[in-house]
Amino acid sequence: MSMTILGVHGVGNHQPGVDPDQAAATIAGWWTAALGDIPAKTVMAYYAHRLRPSRVAQGGADEPDSELEPDIYAWARELGWPDRTPQGMVTAPIRAVVSWVATTYGLDQRLTQMFVERFFRELHRYFTDAERRDAIVTGVADLVDQHQPRVVVAHSLGSVVAYEALWRRDGHPIDLFITIGSPLAMPSVVHDRLVVRDGGHRRPPRVRRWLNIADPGDVVAIPRHGLGQSFAGVEADITTAIHAFDFHRATNYLRSAKVREPIAACG
Fold first, then answer.
1. InterPro entries attached here (predicted)?
2. 57-89: buried (b, 16+ CB within 10 Å) or exposed (e) per residue?
3. What pLDDT score was predicted for residue 58?
4. 25-244-37 Cα angle (round to 5)
C-alpha cells in the first residue's frame, strides 16, 4: 500500500467558481506529477477559498495598502533593504521598496509587485481574521486526522497553516514534515504571531522529523539562515537551487531531489 502525503499549498491558489474539493484534487494532481514516481497518494489541504476577499473595495482589494505596509517593510529589511528611517515614521513608497527587492535579486519588476501584493494580502487576512484562521487551521487538522498521512509537505504560507494545525491536536504521528519556501521564522511578520501550546517555538510533538528546504533566491524563505535558529527540533535547513528564475513555485521544489529523496525514504 502506498503512503499518503498531505500537501498544504501556498498563496495564489484560489480557483474562483470551482468547488473546493475539485480545486484540492487539481492542485494535488500538480504536486503528484512533480513528485514523479514516488509511490504515494497526495491529498491537498485546500484553503485558498477561505482567504478570498470578504468585501471588495475600490481598487479590488479588501485591505488598504496602508494595512500591509508594516509587514512589507519588515520583509524588505530582512532582505537587506537599506532603510534608515526611524520606525514609525513615513518611509519609502511600497512600490519603491518592492522595486529595490526586484532589482537586488534580479527579479521581474511587474511579477514581483504582483506576487508581493498577493502574498501579503493573504498573509494579512490569515493573521487578522480570527474566524478565517480558525476555519483554515481546523480544516487542515481534520484532514490529518482523516487521512493519517506519513508525510506533510507545506509550501510558503501553507507552512504557517500546517505548523499551527500540527500543534492544534495530538494523535496520529507524522514521520516527516517538510517545509518549502517557508516564511515561518520571519520576525514580527510571522514568527511572533504563531499560536502554539506552552508558548514554545519548536517541532510539534506529533512530528518525528522536520526538514526545511529553501532556494537561496527565494525572497519568501527568510531569514536566510533558515528555521533552525528560531524553532527547536528542526533537523536540517537545506539550501538548494530549484530554478534559475522561478524559485518559489511549489512544483519546482517538489521536483528537487532534496525534497523527493526524504519523502521516498518514508515509503
1. AB_hydrolase_fold (IPR029058)
2. eeeebeeeeeebbebbbbbbbbeebeeeeeeee
3. 44
4. 40
Residues 6+ apart with CB under 8 A from 206: 166, 170, 171, 172, 173, 174
The C-alpha cell at 89 is: 515614521
Question: If you average pLDDT over residues 230-246, what whole number do you get?
Answer: 84
Q: What is the dihedral of CA 68, 73, 79, 85, to 10 degrees?
A: 180
Each residue of 20-53: pLDDT tens digit?
Answer: 999 999 999 999 999 999 999 999 999 999 998 7
pLDDT tens-digit series, residues 81-131: 887 655 544 567 888 899 999 999 888 888 888 889 999 999 999 999 999
Q: In residues, how long is the chain?
A: 267
More confident residue, 267 or 210: 210
What is the distance between the alpha carbons of residues 254 and 102, in angstroms, rounded to a whole number?
A: 24
Q: How far is residue 121's CA from residue 94's CA, in Å, rounded to a whole number?
A: 14
State if pTM tops 0.90: yes
| Angle, CA 230 vertex, CA 221 and CA 72 arms, to 5° | 45
Nearest to 254 by CA among 27, 26, 18: 27
Q: d(Cα 136, Cα 88) in Å, to the nearest integer?
A: 32
d(CA 133, CA 245): 32
Phi, psi for residue 125 in degrees, rounded to 5: -60, -40
Residue among 52, 94, 100 at smallest CA distance from 73: 94
> Do residues 177 and 154 lie in contact, with contact meaning Cβ atoms separated by under 8 Å?
yes
